[in-house]
Design a protein that fits this description.
Elements: E1 2-7, E2 13-17, H1 22-31, E3 39-42, H2 48-59, E4 62-67, E5 70-75, E6 82-83, H3 85-88, H4 98-105, E7 107-111, H5 124-132, E8 136-140, E9 143-147, E10 155-157, H6 166-177, E11 182-186, H7 192-203, E12 207-209, E13 215-219, E14 228-230, H8 235-247, E15 251-255, H9 263-272, E16 275-280, E17 283-287, E18 296-299, H10 310-317, E19 323-328, H11 336-343, E20 347-351, E21 354-358, E22 367-369, H12 373-384, E23 389-393, H13 396-399, H14 405-411, E24 415-420
Parallel strand pairs: 2-15, 3-14, 6-7, 10-11, 18-19, 22-23
Antiparallel strand pairs: 1-23, 1-24, 3-5, 4-5, 7-9, 8-9, 11-13, 12-13, 15-17, 16-17, 19-21, 20-21
Helix pairs in contact: 1-2, 1-7, 4-6, 5-6, 6-7, 8-10, 8-12, 10-12, 11-12
Bound molecules: uridine-diphosphate-N-acetylglucosamine.
Amino acid sequence: MYKLVVEGGCRLFGEVEISGAKNSVLPIMCASLLTDDDVVLYNVPDLEDIRVMRSLLERLGKEVFFSNGTMVIKTKTDEPYEAPYEIVKKIRASIAVLGPLLAKRKRARVSFPGGCSIGPRPVDLHIKGMRILGASVKVEHGYIVAETDGLTGGLVNMLGINGTSVVATENVMMAATLASGTTVIDNAAMEPEVVDLANFLIKCGAKIKGHGTNTIIVDGVKKLKGCEYTVISDRIEAGTYILAGMMTKGEIILKNCNPMHLVEPINVFRQMGAIIEIINSSSILVKGIEKYEPVNVTTLPYPLFPTDLQAQLMAVLTKARGISIITEKVFQNRFAHAAEMNRMGADITIENSSAIIRGVEKLYSTTVMASDLRGGAGLIIALLGAEGKGELLRLYHVDRGYEKIEEKLSKLGAKVNREKSELI
Ligand code: UD1
């Protein structure tokens, strides 16, 4: 088990290359199940979640080759249809094999993912979507068991009690590509990763319109072919480096990112006082300042402020000039990092789904523990802005979603080291 040792107080300076988007690659890998042809993906980050998804695809009859950001997926057999618990429990996005397996192999047995440290994560919208497309779906012995003689298009409303769902939208969109007739997905998620998946599917021969809006229309086709596709860059990784730059009063340039995917976060960062310049369509300049203004932010589906940047924003707000409020509307229990930040001297109170953050002068380094991916990233930012040497335990959470984090931070001048950890 590894930890990240961080010496706080170093100003980050220089350029950082943003990797491909984890949340695009994962569903696109699942979408490769819709074709027997080869699929070639570029700009694929080398991450733990991607390795887990690779092992799932291999279980499902694919051969996967991966080197230097290029992934080649080939078909050995298209018979397996089970996503077992030992893989699904590691990465919830594996539920995204449900739609492709049903559409292409006519049946699927996918472990029920259960809750996780950021709160309950139901899958009712996935199941509802498959049923509307005509599949029979049961939950048996902890597995979603689904089968069909052939899916048919339908009207699927993705609105659940917590709003729309990203991966459920993706699941239904993938399933609908091979259904007979037209599927309309209402209240569809509009995230750039949904658009990226749609663009990939279109390159494979799917007929999709409206992606990027809240109504997606899919006309089913008989067959999809393989293709070569470059995935978009990771807006959450980009936002994380912007906030790390802000926390350390640094001056950094992000390369290979898409500023258009960060419009709302950039609005918030500017409101706080950060100087952010869009250099061109793939680069952003960030200049941090001494003291930030407090803000009130609510996390909501795209294009609003992403829940996946909530913890990292909170880290910077711990040292802002006054009282900030972050209201979490996507995953209401996603505040485990706040208690760890308080151990570093922050003043955060949680009231229902809101965090009230009273700015303090200083954070003090100590040993803190990640309990989820983005919370871990938030704690690294807190450690970068704290006085003294501290460490983040359970770095494996962060490794799920940040490629070469210690290399990228070191290149920017941070004093960080990955070390073996006795403590778990
Ligand atoms: C995706 C992202 C994740 C991000 C999240 C919200 C991937 C692989 N992961 O996760 O990084 O934090 O979007 O932006 O893309 N819900 C239901 N029923 C369902 C499904 C979801 O009620 O069947 C609820 C969830 O509990 C949550 C909300 O809908 O409150 C949004 O979750 P969802 O968009 O599904 O998250 P994921 O797609 O799992």
